[in-house]
Design goal:
Layout (H helix, E strand, L loop, with lengths): L5 H17 L2 H19 L4 H18 L6 H22 L1 H12 L14 H17 L8 H9 L12 H9 L5 H33 L10 H32 L17 H7 L2 H15 L1
Helix pairs in contact: 1-2, 2-7, 3-4, 3-6, 3-7, 4-6, 6-7, 9-10
Length: 297
Amino acid sequence: MVFSSVIFLFLFLPVVLLGYYALPRRFRNIFLLLASVFFYGWGEPKFVFVMLFSILVNYSIGRFVEGRCKDAPAKLAMFVMAAFNLGIFFVFKYLGFAQVNISHFFGIDLGLPVYALPIGISFYTFQAMSYVIDVYRGDAPAQKNPLDTALYIMCFPQLIAGPIVRYETIAGQLKERTTSLDRFYGGLCRFVVGLAKKVLLANTFATFADQMFELDYVLLPVGNFDAWMGVLAYTLQIYYDFSGYSDMAIGLGRMLGFDFLENFNYPYISGTVTEFWRRWHISLGTWFRDYVYIPMG
């Protein structure tokens, strides 16, 4: 179920918003979690259990490492956490790729099963790791309620295509959020802008880009102008697709009382590759910076 689909816009989203605001505040997290499980299960029912198992493991490790002052057991638990999350990520996303290359270079057929790729596995894996790392560092308290941990990791607005929401930025909002008519209207406007980017721009550019990339250039030579137009169309398609989904996620979050950080900042006006990296998929870049590059340095 994607944000631009008819069933999401005219059935799922209205029901969720009506139920969310009709319920007392103490029941909203549970309702939103159930809606998120349904949202993910709509397209990936068998992989819901993979996600729930991941949540349970990361919740348990988070409770274990909280307040342990980085002692030896806590460090071992962090190693287990990293191995577990990256292991799941590798098995579902890169195991098939690795087998093909090993078979090609060494002539060895490992015979390992290759699984379908769960939707959004990159985003919920990184968020699960963010939760445990922030608790380990003392940047945010561990969640005592596993349902709140599950809501953080699989909240449907950012579950499929991001942005990656870091735990320390949203820990307080899981307990108490501010909702108002102005915030709801602002979120709705942001969602509509993102929807227009996706439907009117990204999908339109995709039509032309797909036609250009599907041509047989041996049988039908293409001029330089047409080739460059195809590249430009694909470039704009990718940007409006990703940024449109981010806008819709940020807007949905605001409509529900969450504040998600910005994910794109006009990347194509960048003057350098470094500046482009800072402006494109900001949540992914800052995640790697704060959880990989700086700790390694």
